[in-house]
Design goal:
heterodimer; A: alpha/beta; Rossmann fold; four-stranded antiparallel β-sheet; 10 strands; 39% helix; B: mainly alpha; 13 helices; globular
């Protein structure tokens, strides 16, 4: 589904991503882990086109997306969640979701004349709202939500956006343990439905529970990859996380 | 006498209402602090005036005024699309100075500081809007039409994407919305309405000169948008009435006429300060200024 080849990105002297290569398989949950500053979010930003790579290639479904803009990669079917909440604060949660699912809302004349959102899309929004348990605050302004509610609403928005591949940057950072459990169950449900997910997470228990494959980054390099079991006992990983 | 005066004020209110809701589309809904807005008003006024004096029918001059301003709106969008907030404000303000300098110095075309006198009153399908009452009806109809169209834009999905860009541009792009295209259209449409308002203004006053289109003239419009409240069209209309009518009261206080002008500026400045301190959302605003 997604393949990264020898990706490099330096910020001045800092090698944020240094010759990084890995593959993501369809229908699996892949986790990207590593200590703080190991380049995980930079990899995300390189894939989604927010940052430009110094060298290397990114292929999505066989199409090279290396030099595409943020909008182009998104419209190929990549949906992502940011580390910080980035909802549209002055819109309601429902409006946030409608904006994500509606692909005609950038067409000026069509909007001026007026059209109705397909019923299927409306149903899809309701279905995902139920799945992510945000139905109770669908009509609240997004900026008035609590942190956990924002997180769920954002996951919902990433889900309703038409996509083939989902990237989640720390979906459970800063949320309460019960919600963390809820989100991990949600991810497993999504996998059952055939979603392909790339995940960044610091919480090892959470990550090892939900993922099929783990890629470990340290100082911008891939130091290990494999099943959660292999990663748990890999000496290199233990060293990167715990020191000697 | 008092009736004629009232009609005059109402005509100005209708014209300013168009300029203000056009700026609201940019500033309140799309988050673009466009201080070049008055330049579009000027481009529209000059385009329409020059064409009218060549004998071109009003309806044509009126539309070309809007389209010409829109073209400049699109042009302005290209170099400024990566700028935000204060930087965008400075760049667009620079644009308004450039337009002012061109109007002032391209004397073969614009007669420079002498201005253009004797602009004909509108004539539509054989009906002449030469008396002020019929002009008022024309101006109100055009203002209502502009309100209807802009209201439709902001209530549609398109308007929600513009609001998304205002709240978080990167998040909008990550959802696959081309923010450059969206912002260009917002700026272009806003410029179009400022342009047609300029056309009405030129034909109403029948005289224009570059000094009518400087940043000083933008301040009342900006004030209307801020007092009415960001992202509220009804608020903008109410604020237009209040802020256009309020300074008129100064005429009746008995100040000498040389003081009325500066008093007006002082009044605007005081209102702006009070609003920013006590009511930063404006009276009907949904969005806080940043």
């Amino acid at each position: 589904m997604l393949e990264i080849k020898n990706l490099k990105r330096y910020f001045g002297g800092v090698k944020a991503v240094d010759d990084c290569s890995f593959k993501i398989e369809k229908g699996k949950i892949t986790a990207l882990i590593g200590p703080n500053g190991s380049g995980k979010t930079t990899v995300f930003n390189l894939i989604s086109g927010i940052l430009k790579e110094d060298s290397g290639k990114t292929l999505f479904d066989g199409i090279e997306i290396t030099h595409m803009t943020v909008e182009e990669t998104s419209n190929l079917g990549i949906s992502r969640l940011f580390q910080q909440p980035r909802l549209f604060g002055n819109l309601s949660v429902r409006e946030n979701l409608i904006m994500a699912i509606d692909e005609d809302n950038t067409r000026f004349w069509k909007n001026l004349i007026g059209y109705k959102l397909d019923r299927e899309k409306g149903d899809k929004i309701n279905e995902i709202a139920k799945l992510t348990s945000i139905t109770a605050f669908m009509d609240k302004q997004a900026k008035n939500l609590s942190f956990g509610q924002k997180r769920l609403a954002e996951i919902a928005r990433a889900l309703v956006k038409p996509h083939k591949f989902l990237m989640l940057d720390e979906p459970v950072a800063g949320v309460t343990p019960p919600l963390r459990k809820e989100i991990s169950e949600l991810l497993l449900k999504l996998k059952k439905q055939g979603e392909t997910i790339l995940l960044i997470e610091h919480d090892m228990n959470f990550t090892l529970n939900v993922s099929d494959k783990v890629v470990v980054l340290d100082s911008g390099k891939v130091i290990a990859q494999g099943s959660p079991k292999q990663i748990k006992t890999n000496p290199k990983v233990l060293e990167a996380y715990l020191g000697d | 006498m008092i009736e004629a005066y009232l009609i005059h004020i109402l005509i100005l209110i209708a014209i300013y209402a168009i300029v203000a809701i056009a700026l609201q589309l940019c500033l309140g809904f799309s988050g673009l602090l466009n201080l070049g807005h008055i330049a579009f008003f000027g481009i529209g006024a000059y385009t329409s005036a020059l064409l009218l004096l060549l004998g071109v029918p009003f309806i044509f001059c009126f539309l070309v005024a809007g389209l010409m301003a829109m073209v400049f709106g699109f042009i302005l969008a290209i170099p400024t699309h990566k700028l935000k907030g204060d930087y965008l404000a400075l760049a667009t303000m620079g644009f308004s100075f450039v337009v002012y300098a061109v109007l002032l110095n391209w004397t073969e075309l614009t007669r420079g500081p002498l201005g253009i006198p004797g602009i004909p009153k509108p004539n539509l399908f054989g009906f002449s809007f030469s008396d002020n009452f019929s002009f008022l009806i024309l101006a109100v109809v055009i203002a209502l039409g502009s309100y209807f169209i802009i209201n439709r834009i902001v209530k549609s999905g398109f308007g929600k994407v513009l609001e998304g860009i205002r709240d978080d541009e990167l998040a909008t792009r990550v959802l696959g919305k081309n923010s450059f295209k969206m912002k260009s259209i917002a700026l272009g449409v806003s410029a179009f309405f400022a342009g047609i308002a300029g056309s009405l203004y030129a034909s109403y006053i029948t005289f224009i000169d570059p000094s009518s289109f400087t940043i000083m003239q933008l301040i009342p419009v900006l004030l209307i948008v801020i007092v009415g409240g960001l992202a509220s069209l009804p608020g903008t209309i109410i604020a237009t009435f209040v802020l256009m009518a309020l300074p008129e009261a100064l005429r009746f206080v008995g100040f000498p006429s040389s003081i009325v002008g500066p008093m007006r500026q002082i009044l605007y400045a005081v209102i702006l300060l009070l609003i920013l301190i006590y009511k930063p959302k404006g009276f009907f605003g949904r969005v806080e200024m940043e």
